[in-house]
Amino acid sequence: MVRMVSGLLLALAILRPLAGGSWEKPDWAPPSLRQETEQAAAYRKNQQDQLSAIIAEKTEAYIWDKANQLGLTCELTVTTAAGESGVPLPEAVTIRGPYSPELAKCIEEEVGIPAEKQIWLEENTWKKESES
Questions:
Q1: Do residues 91 and 107 touch, judged by C-beta distance below 8 A?
Q2: Where are the alpha helices (DSSP H) in the chain?
Q3: What's the start-to-end Cα distance of the chain, in Å?
Q4: 100: Cβ contacts below 8 Å, ≥ 6 apart
Q5: Predicted pLDDT at 62
Q6: Does the pTM exceed 0.90?
């Protein structure tokens, strides 16, 4: 009985570090495994970049359409950032054209970009700065 209990304790002492260890890629992984891991990370980043570009493009088109409905002529650029789930979301917008409270409200309520992340660059401001 003593042998069995001491054998179990010895087995537990040996297996205990394995239970708490991390199961990530070991440092001694072969180069091919490291290369595959790097390729997978590059592929995920490329997919994320492409998704960000699509979301920015669609958001720009939506805002531009709303601006046209309001009779505004403008150029805009939308930037994205990863949300809590990792999916890119519209984060900020830069609008080159006259300020419109209606469009600003639409961008905030329908697109989700708050007023403090909306940058309005009016042409009159540019001309005044360039003249001085």
A1: no
A2: 2-20, 31-69, 101-106, 123-131
A3: 96
A4: 67, 70, 72
A5: 93
A6: no
- Are the C-beta atoms of residues 27 and 63 closer than 8 Å to each other? no
Q: 115: which residues sit within 8 A by CB, 6+ positions away?
A: 104, 108
Cα radius of gyration rounded to whole Å, the chain: 28
Q: How far apart are CA 21 and CA 63, in angstroms?
A: 50
Amino acid at 15: L
Domains of the chain, start order: 33-131 (3.30.300)
Please count the other Cβ atoms lying within 10 Å of the Cβ belonging to residue 41: 10
**pLDDT grade for 64, boundaries at 50, 70 and 90:** very high
> Is the per-residue pLDDT at 79 higher than 60?
yes
Residue 103 pLDDT exceeds 90: yes
* pLDDT on residue 17: 63
Tokens coding 10? 């010895």
